[in-house]
């Protein structure tokens, strides 16, 4: 039996609540299959840890995490800890240390989820965003000169290496080729006359190796408009760190809300663990009340199953989420229901078990 070692960083706010439900679902899939099991190890890192110790994680935290097959992250952020501290000292530190240069965010409007657009069919919203996750606008390069003086200057530098740009674009082409879908690149070359001109150039170069993949390229502002006006034109999408971050939140609004938004941070070579997380944030205002929607966390668990080669179970979990949405009986308040976080997780487990028997 294969044992998948999972590091759990439940984090802050609603993180522990939604992660518990994802683990519940993962354990159910392992119970249904004699070929694998999960071994979860919990780490108490996050903003509460920062308040006690002045740091977001142990000094040797990265070394500890290296031993695992994957990381399951709940949420990071809490009042009293600046967002740039919680982000850079935990989430981004893990992404960069483990070269998780591929960020995957599915934007698929499941049956039963709220359709916010008019004159658009449900099946038109089915995008896979592949975001560069290690450099670009979030490289952390820059300077702060003459701080506090009248001539204060802040420099925030974007970093686009040939290696980093080409590997994410090639990964996206490989994905589009495998899935038989088109690939769209999103940039802003008319205004960013170095980084995005370079991005477009590399996209064109790599596209020559994939003549079978239909391609398109849009400026980011036009892409934002077209995601709403004509979402069906976007199938697989590749873009930079910042643009991907922004557009996938727009995508979450198109695909039923932030409570259904899942994300994966992948090291494709598997030299390091990959990390799976809901992207809805820590929502400290509702923490501990059983109001949090765990479906994004459960969807990210489905992504983890796919990553481990258990695609059938990954699909089963996603189908279970869809059936739950269609039933309209066990939903959290953000989706118009009255169920608790745990009740939603329990119902997903029940559906997974019933689907697995078919």
TrEMBL record:
UniProt keyword annotation of Thylakoid present: no
Every Isopropylmalate dehydrogenase-like domain range: 5-348
Coiled coil: none
Cofactor(s) it depends on: Mg(2+); Mn(2+)
Annotated EC: 1.1.1.83
Highest rank taxon of the organism: Bacteria
InterPro entries (alphabetical): ICDH/IPMDH, IsoCit/isopropylmalate_DH_CS, IsoPropMal-DH-like_dom, TTC_DH
Catalytic activity entry: (R)-malate + NAD(+) = pyruvate + CO2 + NADH
Signal sequence segment: none
Top enzyme class: oxidoreductase
Family: Belongs to the isocitrate and isopropylmalate dehydrogenases family.
Name this polypeptide is given: D-malate dehydrogenase (decarboxylating)
Organism of origin: Bacillus badius
